[in-house]
Amino acid sequence: MLIKLILFLLIFSVIVLVHEGGHCVIGKRSGIDVVEFSIGLGPTIWGFERNGTKYSIKALPFGGACQFRGMDPDDEEAEIYENSMLNAPIWSRIATVAAGPVMNFVLAFFLALFVVGSMGYDAPVISGVMEGYPAAEAGLQGGDRIVKIGSKHIDVYRDISLYMLLNESKSAEITFERDGSRQTVTVTPKYDEESGRYLFGLYGAEERVKGSVFDTVYYSIVEVRYWIEATWKSLGMVFAGRITMDDVAGPVGVAQTVGDVYDASKSSGIYYIWINMMQLTILLTANLGVMNLLPFPALDGGRLVFLFIELITRRKVNRSIEAIIHFVGMCVLLVFMVFVMYNDVSKFFR
Q1: What is the rounded CA–CA span in Å between residue 133 and residue 144?
Q2: From CA 8, how far away is CA 19, in angstroms rounded?
Q3: pTM for this prediction
């Protein structure tokens, strides 16, 4: 249990550190004063000050913050400071706010380089087809490489699964390669009673493929792209009512997932534990990057909205109004977080 907790805290802390570090580094390079850089929430349990910035670790190991001079709406003298966030050039402020989510994607890419370089990628090659299902009836067979479904280009086998999740019963044109030539067939998914899903009737190859250095770089980008797309599409499914709150996990749910991955990996040795933890971190950091770019108050995306309004109108939004909007947004996020954590905990008693 202790190992699982340490792994969870390590993963969560690295993701937050990279996110807030992105804000901090770009802000400082833009000449903006950083008042405090902290990991965690609540009271400070350890910290030090260097070059005018307080670096601290908080009691609750969730989240973090990079507080710039001028961000406090109660600081009436913020505008007189030369190195205030308020007085920085508009593009410097945009870059500083966007740097957090961008660094989450950068972290995902570098982790993906290690994972793909070590394990390879899941090529979209089918190992076989299910008898009596549309893929077999359309003439698909083991060894075919799926390159396109409808207008969706297929890079990895998971792209096929994601397409099916999003489109379910819709007919689609499947383009595949066989013996160096491309063919296209139209396939209508069939509902499978046992799994409760619509299926083309394909079996994916279990082996991962290792390629050249260029393949490793390319498929590392694909890995990040996949998780960004999966996160974004999943949000759409939540709003469409196709995903329930039971499918949404907060910190408690993530900690449980880390534990499950550890339990499933430990029999294969420490190397596979770290590989699988890296894969999980790629998912989580890409997820955090996407979520923070949502145009919702208090999130980085919400702050970017106000900055782009200023860029277009050439006028700053009233600080008090913006502060109130972000405060309301933060309250909504806190209520949502409490609800998600309650939902996570309640799953243990069902």
Answers
A1: 16
A2: 17
A3: 0.89
Q: pLDDT (tens digit, 9 = 90+) per residue, 33-68?
A: 999 999 988 889 999 999 889 999 998 877 889 999
Give the residue among 161, 163, 87, 170 at the shortest CA–CA distance from 134. 170
Residue entry with tokens 């899903």: 197
| 3-class SS string, the chain | CHHHHHHHHHHHHHHHHHHHHHHHHHHHHCCCCEEEEEEEEEEEEEEEEECCEEEEEEEEEEEEEEEECCCCCCCCCHHHCCCCHHHCCHHHHHHHHHHHHHHHHHHHHHHHHHHHHHHCECCCEEEEECCCCHHHHCCCCCCCEEEEECCEECCCHHHHHHHHHHHCCCCEEEEEEECCEEEEEEECCEEECCCCEEECCEEECCCCECCCHHHHHHHHHHHHHHHHHHHHHHHHHHHCCCCCHHHCCCHHHHHHHHHHHHHHHHHHCHHHHHHHHHHHHHHHHHHHHHHHCCCCCCCHHHHHHHHHHHHHHCCCCCHHHHHHHHHHHHHHHHHHHHHHHHHHHHHHHC
pLDDT above 90 covers a percentage of the chain that reads 57
pLDDT digits (tens, 9 = 90+) for 195-206: 888 899 999 877
Tokens 């099916």: give the residue: 164
* Distance between CA atoms of residues 117 and 74, nearest Å: 50
pLDDT band at 349 (very low <50, low <70, confident <90, very high): low
Per residue in 117-158, pLDDT tens? 999 999 999 999 999 899 999 999 999 999 999 999 999 999
Give the side-chain half-sphere CA count within 13 A for 269. Answer: 1
Considering only CA atoms, which of 26, 283, 62, 106 is closest in space to residue 291?
Answer: 283
Q: For residue 177, what are the β-bridge partners?
A: 145, 182
Cα separation, 62 vs 41, in Å, equals: 6
Give which of 115, 9, 113 is closest to 62, Cα–Cα. 9
Write the single-letter amino acid at 294. L
Q: Residue 252 is encoded by which pair of tokens?
A: 């408690």
pLDDT of residue 300: 95
